[in-house]
Amino acid sequence: MSPLAFDVAHMFAGGLVLVSFLMLYQDRLLPLINVLALHSFILALSAAWQAHIQDNPDLYVTALVALSLKCIVIPMALRRMIVRMGLHREIEVAVGTGLTMLTGIGLVAVSMDLMLQATAGANLLARQDVALALSVVLLGLLMMVTRRNAVSQVIGFMSIENGLILAGTGAHGMPLVVEISIAFSILVAFIVIGIFLFRIRERFDTVDLQALDRFREERR
């Protein structure tokens, strides 16, 4: 593999980590959805580049799915849901932004150290891509832990899934049937989550998880 191909592959993977930090920094829902679309767009570019350098046409399907479904369809649907539910406001957080960012930096350092040691026998491209993919997954988990809004937790879930796809494409690709099944699973999960969000909004007039916890305690 040429040095240029190697550097471009890592530029895309590192870009996903950087955009994951942008997600953690956002404090409003609509900008957060825009960042999710950017996250998925970079994933599509990464998958397309991996298809090129690995000579694996199946990965072009992965790139197309990420571009159409996760970069366009799902962000548009999330925007419509937010408009219909009237959620144009700041996101409630359990931890301050500064502490969250510092924790994220620590998680990236841990994931890099852990995965580079665990994949010592693999080729350098796969090792570093998998390490960066684990960073994306951990940052997505951090978003789900530190955000109290149900919509932002859905976005954290989508970020985690992007990290898993990055790991699969970096480790010499995934079988086409796996890519298609993942795409349909994402679509079904998103539809189910959307239905639940609307039902929660209608029943409790909020999607703030802290308010839902208080309601549950009052019922006890």
Short recap of the structure:
The chain has helices spanning 3-25, 29-54, 58-85, 97-118, 124-146, 150-170, 176-204, 209-219. It has 220 residues and is mainly α. The chain has one domain.
Write the layout of secondary structure elements.
Blueprint: H1 3-25, H2 29-54, H3 58-85, H4 97-118, H5 124-146, H6 150-170, H7 176-204, H8 209-219
Describe it.
- The termini are far apart.
- It contains eight helices and no strands.
- It has 220 residues and is mainly α.
- The mean pLDDT is 77.
- It has helices at 3-25, 29-54, 58-85, 97-118, 124-146, 150-170, 176-204, 209-219.
- Helix content is 83%, strand content 0%.
- It has one domain.
Write down the overall geometry.
Answer: globular
Query: Averaging pLDDT over every residue, what do you get?
Result: 77
The count of DSSP E runs of length 2 or more, i.e. the number of strands, is 0
Ends apart, CA distance between termini: 62 Å
Alpha plus pi helix count? 8
Task: Sketch the major β-sheet.
Answer: none
Class by alpha and beta content: mainly alpha
- Helix coverage percent: over 70%
Tally of individual domains: 1
Radius of gyration: 18 Å
The share of residues in extended strands comes to under 5%
Stretches where pLDDT is under 50 for at least 5 consecutive residues are none
* Helix-strand topology string: HHHHHHHH
